[in-house]
Amino acid sequence: KLHSDLDKGVGTVKYTLSGDGAGTVFTIDETTGDIHAIRSLDREEKPFYTLRAQAVDVDTKKPLEPESEFIIKVQDINDNEPKFLDGPYVASVPEMSPVGAYVLQVKATDADDPTYGNSARVVYSILQGQPYFSIDPKTGVIRTALPNMDREVKEQYQVLIQAKDMGGQLGGLAGTTTVNITLTDVNDNPPRFPKSIFHLKVPESSHVGSPIGRIRAVDPDFGKNAEIEYNIVPGDGGNLFDITTDENTQEGVIKLKKPLDFETKKAYTFKVEASNLHLDHRFHSVGPFKDTATVKINVLDMDEPPVFSKPMYTMEVYEDTPVGTIIGAVTAQDLDAGSSSVRYFIDWKNDVDSSFTIDATEGTIATNELLDRESTSQYNFSIIASKVSNPLLASKVNVIINVLDVNEFPPEISVPYETTVCENAKPGQVIQTITATDKDLSPAGQRFSFKLSSEASNKPNFTVHDYGNNTAGIETRRNGYSRRQKELYFVPIVIEDSSYPVQSSTNTLTIRVCRCDPDGTIQSCNVEAIFLPVGLSTGALVAILLCIVILLVIVVLYVALRRQKKKDTLMTSKEDIRDNVIHYDDEGGGEEDTQAFDIGALRNPKVIEDNKTRRDIKPDTLRFPRHRPPAEDNTDIRDFISQRLKENDVDPSAPPYDSLATYAYEGNGSVAESLSSIDSLATEADQDYDYLSDWGPRFKILADMFGEESYDPDKVT
């Protein structure tokens, strides 16, 4: 209730209300100032309200007093029960836990005012779940109440928890929640076989590695605590059988390690041990966590296929062996009690298998066609042996036949070599190392030999040195080579193998002469490079060529004018041409000089006018013969002169006089003696021309010509 001292009770004062809840929750009587609540209040919704009130003059609407503020507090009553905001709960605790083991803590919330009375004081209790669990009434902690609770007996527990306010007194409000508790597993149970003896029957035809039976030990534990390891106790079956654990079913799978044979042994007995992999030391006192059972295996007799004496057969045969030759045999045997005959045949898969045949009864293998090692060096096929009594029972074996080589191909140079030799090469210098190949299959110890052919041995510019390790070296035999004289040399090399029969072949090695620097580095091997100066630019070469052309034009013009002048002299002369004596005050060029004088000056002018040519023979470039008997009587010159005389006598275009050429001897009285071979008393093979290299550059051509022919037959390989 509000009241102003200025209010005389005559209705001249009006009261107003503003603030939290004014007009909605609270209202005021404008005349008396009484404040009323117009709806129910909830402390949990709003614990207090702040309001402002004022007295106003009814006529003037002016405040009679300053505005005053006041607070209305809502007083709490116990109208809210405790609530478990996180419920229902799920918890777990290991089985076999001791009494008082912690499980879970629950908490209930009461919305009432904890500072006013006992409305918010909560007490916890168990309505369902005893005597297995207990709860602290103040903290809400749940603990185990019984020892050695076994998961294998009961795994799930549902506990009903109550929270009551007013300190648990009569009239208090209560709330409940559910706690689902699971006992987790511990390894407190060893594995146990349900029976002490397991009987298995296994066919003797079972394959190695295949499972032949299963046994199982029971472990009531769960998860990894129930994992079991099986082992065969050393004894009768330790070498023939093995056991592993199936991870899904925890069964022991017995597998075969070796083949079974009913005829050898009909039964096996051994023991199997089952044990836990993960042990809990707290339960060692319970006893050993393993168990043992006996396994008896009876081998069943089966009708088996024949068995070959070897797992694989390897045979050898020479190529070109006559068709029908037996090269080997395979053997298979029926090991069953009622032994049956065996038949053999080749497992045809391709045309290669038709190269051989097999005797169906004896198992002998023979050639069916001529074999060629160079086409196929090895044959690989299968032979099948089957029982006569039951052809469906068959076994297979692999046969490898190696074709041995017969020496039928000659060796050859392995690769085409590009061999070069320097012009400044020295005698004995190795310019190329060669190897050989043979299409035949070279057996151990076979080697190749290298040598020059018999034709090349007589003129060895190069020689072959056999190193004895299937390689050979090409060595020079001369002191230098000239590209102007000869650019390419063809060296025939004979290569032989060491097999029987011996095969050989002649291979030609091409050697190119190249220009090299003093260190032996090749600079040029082209023919054009012989005439090109080194180090000149293109402009300099063009200028030199132009100068040469101009000089050639001048020489041609000079020669043409001179010939014209001589022609005029001959045509105007009235005297006999034979009376004219032409004197040449120079020395002749020797035997090979045919250009020292103009033979036309001796011809008849009429013949020249008629443009009739005589058949003068222009001698070819003389090559020094290799072997010539001593010319003591000069019979060759006499025959030559006689032949020329006969030709001129019958030649109508020849002049009517004799033209006698005198072939005299030069070199008489010289210190160097005669340079001609006409009067030589010794054969060319007996002469040594190495001294020509010492006479200087003027005799280099002679040294190259005669030095090429020098050789030492004793050093030729």
TrEMBL record:
Subcellular location as annotated: Cell membrane
Topology within the bilayer: Single-pass type I membrane protein
Cellular component terms per the entry's GO annotation: adherens junction; catenin complex
Keyword Signal tagged: yes
Annotated Pfam families: CADH_Y-type_LIR, Cadherin
SMART domains assigned: CA
Keywords linked to the UniProt accession: Calcium, Cell adhesion, Cell membrane, Cleavage on pair of basic residues, Glycoprotein, Membrane, Metal-binding, Phosphoprotein, Repeat, Signal, Transmembrane, Transmembrane helix
Boundaries of every Cadherin domain copy: 4-84, 85-193, 194-308, 309-413, 413-531
Gene Ontology annotations of biological process type: adherens junction organization; calcium-dependent cell-cell adhesion via plasma membrane cell adhesion molecules; cell migration; cell morphogenesis; cell-cell adhesion mediated by cadherin; cell-cell junction assembly; homophilic cell adhesion via plasma membrane adhesion molecules
CDD domains according to UniProt: Cadherin_repeat
Transmembrane segments: 530-561
GO molecular function annotation: beta-catenin binding; cadherin binding; calcium ion binding
Protein's UniProt keywords contain DNA damage: no
Function statement: Cadherins are calcium-dependent cell adhesion proteins. They preferentially interact with themselves in a homophilic manner in connecting cells; cadherins may thus contribute to the sorting of heterogeneous cell types.
Protein name, per record: Cadherin-12
Species for this entry: Formicarius rufipectus
